[in-house]
Write a structure and sequence with these properties.
Chain lengths: 187, 127
Amino acid sequence: MTANERMPGLARLIEHHKTKSHILKTILDNNLASGPVMAAGEEGCTVLQDAIGQLRPDQLRRQSIPEAIAELREIAAMTENSVDMIMQKTETLMELEPALDDAMEILQACSFQDIAGQRLAKVTQLLENLEERLHSLVHETGIDDRFDAIDEDELEAERRRKELILHGPQMDGEGVSQDEIDALLGA
Amino acid sequence: MAIDLNMPILVVDDYKTMIRIIRNLLKQLGFNNVDEASDGTEAYAKMQAKKYGLIISDWNMEPMTGYELLQKVRANSDLTRTPFIMVTAESKTENVIAAKKAGVNNYIVKPFNAATLRNKIAAVFGA
């Protein structure tokens, strides 16, 4: 399973940002080529508002970023649980065979969970900060999300994502259990 | 100088996994008298209730970091001589220098193995 499959929300967020940042950069570059945006007065401000609106800051802070944060938290929790199980079994093996060097090496390798956990916490904090700043941007400027500049390819990708593509692993407590699926299928 | 294998050791880390790994490494080295704390505040409280022969502490913890714990320990005349090893995934020069200035006895970068831990403990006790 690729990282994108594991974290579809985060992958979508990054892709969305890439596309929108490119649009904003193009607009700003074009405007800056013929003079600074602010110098263009009201027209320049409108262009800038449109560009920011096309980034869809409200949707980012309400939906995409919280989804990505939830995905990261789920990864951290799942990793911790799995490592805990590996360590429990390894410790049992060590009690049976104290001189088992390989078992000690398995335990040492489990320290990746600590380091990966710290990295995940760092990215989560970054996303939380971004969410907060976008909230201020939307609140203070009153700029609405703009959906009219979405190109055809993006619309099609969005339609496929909503209608045809699975949304990655369920979060804990979401979805249905295997027993429920079996009951539904009568299997 | 021989190391007392029965000395009480306090392991401080906010990741249970890491505490468990260090516990097992210490057990492999012959140390069985090991307590744990999940941050600096809990560790400091435990240090005031019990005399430890060695502190092995992570840096990144809240509400009190390992660095702040080290500073508090060195500022307390009853605890100031307690050997203190900092264990962290961050190996920036400024962090190492700051820890050294604060009075750390040794500094281990994660991930590490039993041999590294043994060498650092031996260095702290001059063994």
